[in-house]
Amino acid sequence: MTTQQLVDQIHKKRSFLCIGLDTDLDKIPAHLKQLEDPIFEFNKAIIDATHHLCVAYKPNIAFYEAYGLSGWKSLEKTIEYLNAEYPEQFTIADAKRGDIGNTSTRYAKAFFEGMNFDSITIAPYMGKDSVEPFLEFENKHTILLALTSNKGAFDFQTTVSDGEELYKKVIRISKSYKNSENLMYVVGATKAEYLAKIRNIIPNNFLLVPGVGAQGGSLEEVCRYGMSENVGLLVNSSRGIIYASDQADFAMAAKNEAAKLQSQMAVLLESAR
Ligand SMILES: O=c1ccn([C@@H]2O[C@H](COP(=O)(O)O)[C@@H](O)[C@H]2O)c(=O)[nH]1
């Protein structure tokens, strides 16, 4: 998917909501567990109930890897279902990969070609030659961890060397990578006060913003400091939507939670015009 197609979807749906598919067998309704592939059935029901309210889905790969081969099969079925039934959705493999160049190429092939995700999250720590293999793929997006939503982000990401905070250095230097127009960045909603400084360095790149809902970040603050001319935001909520109910009404409850965020987003988009 191109960035322009994503922007068009945001305006069409009046939403920049990304729904996180962090599907945990311990949290899904009991009646699904009797089915052959409970994880896929849960995801399918959530997607069918919410697709009109969001523009992106983000399965976190850890939740699938944790179940071995059957988890990978559930992930594969989920991305195939999304691409077949809802091709207008931007898909994010939240895999946080990155390694020496030839290994990164294999990761990129696995997620961009094998599973046909639109994007993948990448840790920037190993530098240019670990990131550039992901950037080679046309109309695929590499989402670099810049300033994450967790407390541990302060251990390294905000530390200063040569007069510059590390997260700023990651953003500034990555702009010089080959095909850097394919870069997006992760910035936690819990760090919204940093967004204005980040927008000074990257006025237009898309930001994937996790941390509203269960982690307590504020949607309004994210928009106040982070919204760009082309919106430039994908705000993710996972647990706050998909586990709104653990009963038979789980998909309807997820739809209601997604609808609340979408209607707030519609107002914020309108007031930014
Ligand atoms: O800085 C980061 C980077 C990634 N995440 C991931 O996003 C979701 C958030 O889930 P919630 O249930 O809405 O808290 C999850 O997959 C994280 O691994 C993040 O939270 N922060």
TrEMBL record:
Ranges of residues in domain Orotidine 5'-phosphate decarboxylase: 16-254
* GO biological processes: 'de novo' pyrimidine nucleobase biosynthetic process; 'de novo' UMP biosynthetic process
Q: What is its EC number?
A: 4.1.1.23
**Domain of life where this protein originates:** Bacteria
InterPro entries, sorted:
Aldolase_TIM, OMPdecase_type-2, OMPdeCOase_dom, RibuloseP-bd_barrel
Q: What class of enzyme is it?
A: lyase
**Listed HAMAP family:** OMPdecase_type2
* Name of the protein in question: Orotidine 5'-phosphate decarboxylase
Q: Which organism is it from?
A: Euzebyella marina
Q: What is the lineage of its organism?
A: Bacteria, Pseudomonadati, Bacteroidota, Flavobacteriia, Flavobacteriales
